[in-house]
Amino acid sequence: MRKIISAMRISVDGYIEDPEGRQDWVDSWEDEYELLDHVDTCVLGSVMYPGYEQYWTAALDPNRKLPYSDKLPTAKEVEYAQWASKTPHIVVSRKPMEISWKNSRVISDLEEIRNLKQKPGGDIYVVGGAMLVSSMINLSLIDEIWLMINPVLLGGGKLLFEGVAKRHYLKFVSSEERTPGKVYVKYKTKHDEGIR
Fold first, then answer.
1. Domain for residue 50, yes or no?
2. 67 phi and psi angles, rounded to 5 deg
3. Is 115 inside a domain boundary?
4. 17-68 pLDDT tens trace
5. Residue 88's domain spans which residues?
6. What are the DSSP E strand ranges found in the chain?
7. Is beta strand 170-177 parallel, antiparallel or unpaired with respect to 123-128?
8. What would the pLDDT profile of 133-179 be if each residue is shown by its tens digit?
9. Distance CA 189, CA 118 (A)
10. Could you give the residue ranges of the DSSP H alpha helices within the chain?
11. Residues contacting residue 88 through CB under 8 Å, at least 6 positions apart
12. Taking the model in full, what pTM does it have?
């Protein structure tokens, strides 16, 4: 069965944004998780989607400065942008919204993701944001949590797991230092097994 994987960049103190909503502490948005070869669908929340679409459509042009960072995309960011432009994206929104990316569609019920998981295909990548990840954890929809812990303390902002409603036990899979100071950690969820 295909897996649903949440892969997010966080600070050491567990935030995905600083108090002003900035993510300028992330040096690149390239695929540090090495997901592209086994994922065929992305899921993201309605708050995150507009910025995500804007960023990755801009990154298709290696000579165009990126929104938010005002830097040129790295070669790996261009590679992700090309992959994202042809990979189906599902946007979860309770309200109707317009999207311009031809590879994207909007759904309002997370049970559609559960049904999609039962169908043949590659893994499903939950890109974010924090509310969506928490909602999917609460519904036992996330199979693996991959974190790229960045060497920064933000001291406040948006917590990744703030909306998780109850205790969830995780099974440690692996950890490694990918680039100086960044630690990549992978966990499997145990859903309702109650195993500690």
1. yes
2. -65, 155
3. yes
4. 999 999 988 888 888 888 889 999 999 999 999 999 999 999 999 999 998 8
5. 4-20+28-33+45-123+130-180
6. 4-11, 15-17, 39-45, 89-92, 104-107, 123-128, 144-150, 158-159, 170-177, 183-189
7. unpaired
8. 999 999 999 999 999 999 999 999 999 999 999 999 999 999 999 88
9. 18
10. 49-58, 75-86, 111-118, 130-138
11. 40, 41, 42, 103, 104, 105
12. 0.92
CA pseudo-torsion sign 156, 32, 147, 178: negative
Alpha helix stretches (DSSP H) within 105-187: 111-118, 130-138
3-state secondary structure of 53: helix
How far is the C-alpha of 144 from the C-alpha of 129, rounded, in Å? 16
CA distance 11 to 3: 25
C-alpha triplet 174, 175, 178: angle, nearest 5° = 135
Tokens of 63: 């000579």
On whether residue 194 sits in a domain, the answer given is: no
Overall domain count for the chain:
1
Q: CB burial class (10 A; 0-12, 13-18, 19+) of residue 19?
A: exposed
148: domain CATH number?
3.40.430.10
Residue 111, domain member (yes or no) = yes
